[in-house]
Design a protein that fits this description.
Blueprint: H1 6-18, E1 20-22, E2 28-30, E3 34-35, H2 46-58, E4 63-67, H3 74-83, E5 91-95, H4 103-114
Parallel strand pairs: 3-4, 4-5
Antiparallel strand pairs: 1-2
InterPro entries: NAD(P)_OxRdtase_dom_sf, NADP_OxRdtase_dom
Pfam families: Aldo_ket_red
Protein name: Aldo/keto reductase
Length: 115
């Protein structure tokens, strides 16, 4: 049993699709996005948090903001799992600690976290 009908999901998606912001390079992103602070911090909530992110994406909230400092990287990993099959439909914003800024550090840290 669903708490919301397919018709209601479609209505919400249509509203979100109409509200876009144009970036300087011409890219349009949803005006309403999802923040991920506190996500991934409690392993027992992970599946529920993944389902929630995916539902919000269904609603057209395809702008996701996360950072390596959120849950010490756990939020980033949770987002990765949630969007793994639909990455090309998501506008993802990632933030890094200042000491990890710069191309060399960003790519080195990303490599270290995945290997």
């Amino acid at each position: 049993m669903s708490l919301i009908s397919e018709r209601e999901i479609e209505e919400i998606r249509n509203i979100n699709e109409k509200k876009k912001v144009k970036l300087p390079d011409g890219t349009f992103v949803p005006a309403l996005g999802q923040g991920t602070w506190y996500l991934g911090e409690n392993a027992s909530n992970m599946e529920c948090e993944i389902r929630t992110l995916r539902l919000e994406i269904e609603f057209g909230m395809t702008f996701i903001d996360t950072a390596e400092m959120y849950g010490d990287g756990k939020a980033e990993r949770l987002v990765g799992k949630a969007i793994s099959e639909i990455r090309d439909k998501i506008f993802l914003v990632l933030k890094v600690y200042p000491h990890n800024a710069g191309a060399k550090n960003i790519f080195t840290k990303a490599y270290q976290k995945t290997h």
